[in-house]
Structure formats: C-alpha cells, structure tokens
Fold:
Amino acid sequence: MDTLQTTQPPPDEAKLMAFLGRVVGDFGAAMSAALAHIGDKLGLYRAMAQAGPLTSAELAQRTGTAERYVREWLINQAAGGYIEYDPAAGRYHLPPEQAVALADEASPFFVGGGFQLVTALAKAEPRITEAFRTGEGMCWGEHDPELFEGTERFFRSSYLAHLVSDWIPALDGVETKLTAGAKVADVGCGHGASTIIMARAYPHSRFFGFDNHAPSIERARRAAAEAGVADRVTFEVAQATEFPGSDYDLIAFFDCLHDMGDPTGAARRACGALAPGGTAMIVEPMAGERTEENFNPVGRVYSAASVLCCTPNAICAGGPALGTVASDQALRDVVLAGGFTRFRRATQTPFNRVFEARA
Ligand SMILES: C[S@@+](CC[C@H](N)C(=O)[O-])C[C@H]1O[C@@H](n2cnc3c(N)ncnc32)[C@H](O)[C@@H]1O
Structure:
C-alpha cells in the first residue's frame, strides 16, 4: 500500500502516542460493550451481586454457563474496572456500586439497557455506511429488535429517577392536574416505559400511548397488563402527526421528537389536541446550543446515536432530520412553527433537557 501523501506537518510523537493510547481505550470499550451485554443477558452480573467473591467455575455453575468462556469474560471485566479480583484467593467480586448499575434493573442507575442498545445499534453499520453514500434513511423498525428493548431499558432508568419527582413538578400546574385526574397522551411512547411510570404515579389520570411502530405498541400493551395499569392505559399504533383524541391536559414526547420525519407536524397535532390550558412536555437528549458544546462524553454518545439511528429514521420518514443533538433554538423553531406560542427549558439532567410548550 502506498504511503498517504499529505500536506500535514510531521506528527508530534508524544501527541501521537497519547492519541493511540486513547484509541486502545476505545477499542476495549467498544468490544467490551458486547461483553457487558452478555453479562446482563446471561445473568452473570446478577449472580455476582447475589454472591460473595466467586471463581470462574463457581460463577459458571451458578449461571449454567461454560466455565471456559466465563474465565475470559471475568478477565475482561476486571481489566475494565467493572469487577474486582483478589489474586491471592483467585476470586472475583462485583463491588456494590457496580452491582447497582449492572445488576439492579429497578435502580434509576441501571445501565444494562445501554449496552443492549449499543450492541444492537452496531449491527446497523453496513446499512448506515451505505446510507452515507446514498443519503437514504433507515427506519426505526428496520433495526435489530434488541434496539427496541434496549431503548426501553436504557431510558427507563432516567424516567424512574426523574419523571415523577422532578420533571412533571417543573411544569406549570401539571402535577396538580395529574394528581386530581387528567388526560395524558404519550406520543412516540415505544414500549411505554414512561406511560406506565406516570400511570402508576397518578392513578386518577388516564393515559394514551401512541407510536407508529406496531411491535412496540404490542409490547407496551403487555407491559401495561403486567404492571396492572391496563385499566387506565391504552396503547395504539398512530403517527405523531395524526394521533387520535382531543382535550389532553398533557401531551408528552419522550426522546422522540428529533426522530420524527415531520416534527413540526407532530407539534401542530399536539397543539390542536390539547385541552384549553394544556401543556406539552418535550424531553430531548442533552445537547449544547453551539456545535462545540457537544464535544464531551454525553455529546459523543448522542451524536453517535444520531448517526446510527435517529437521523436515519427521520430521513426514512421524509426528514428534514433535527438530529439527536438539536439545539434549544432548533427545537423552539419547530415547536413554535407547530402553533405553540410559549416554549421554555423547564428543567434538565446531565442526559436530558425537559421543555414545556404552551399554546
Ligand atoms: C428513541 S425511541 C423512544 C421511545 C420512548 N419514548 C422511550 O422513551 O422509551 C423513539 C420512538 O419514537 C417513535 N416514532 C418515531 N417517529 C414517529 C412518528 N412519526 N409517529 C409516532 N412515533 C414515532 C419510534 O417508533 C420510537 O418508538
């Protein structure tokens, strides 16, 4: 292979070595995402959380897995700081902090869904590479189905942590209405994690979840039945631009407005479907106002999701794509073009911005 002809000055060796060191870290992180997903899927983390220090043979025996694989997996996990190793005893253990994040699905700090999502998204690479050439999209429903469950499990953690305790109280007068009994739409609800969390918290209110991905709606219906809230939660396949019903007190969009082909049309439909004095809550990934404000770990995650999933879905649906790291101004423009007159950032977390829109 010919040497690359370049107009660049010769590299600074120390900077080159430092960069290569970062790349090695990224190689390890990228491959280890699949291993973390394996640990989540096979219950390896859960078994470690329930036991004291274990050898590879004991962990394999507890989880019904093959010791030879478990032995290699444990080395990778200890190398990444996910578990700890006692060389004298030849045993590994999961520290309590890692146990909360990796083994406790009910915890607001649970990250297992993130690895499921990342592993599923990586499978889209051939399609997305081709899309760079053609400019075409890739619809949400064309991804590996693990993406839908991974998304549900990934986002559920932050909804558990913030939705009822922080986000709804940050909206003007909404908590009082939901407590008394209100009508709520959850547009782009996916598997309905947010809908079901709200239905549990506000038993006098009625909830209507809509999504244009039929398998997600089927899954959401089963989840509502399992959660015992199916009497006040309905899930229906619908486009955000034409979901049924009127007089909603609250219409929520959780991490989905930027995925839509016609976000202005969705905002317009929401504006028209609100009861007088109603509120739209738009939860979007954290992003900076200027491009360079996204050059951080959270911006790295969300801009990658934008390339692999959100932007291709919006293009598939006719675009223009807002992108996962859309600025407040870009979102405001879309929402106001849909007929709302007021738009503000009501609250935020390190991962999400929560906007309130009023007609
Ligand atoms: C990233 S997922 C978020 C799902 C869910 N809100 C959550 O937080 O778990 C985006 C969702 O938006 C849905 N979606 C995208 N465009 C839509 C549209 N035009 N109408 C209805 N749903 C749409 C997708 O099918 C997908 O379920």
Observations:
- The domain at 13-104 is CATH 1.10.10.10 (Arc Repressor Mutant, subunit A).
- The beta strands are 84-86, 91-93, 183-187, 206-211, 233-237, 248-254, 274-285, 342-348, 352-358.
- The longest strand covers residues 274-285.
- The chain has 14 helices and nine strands.
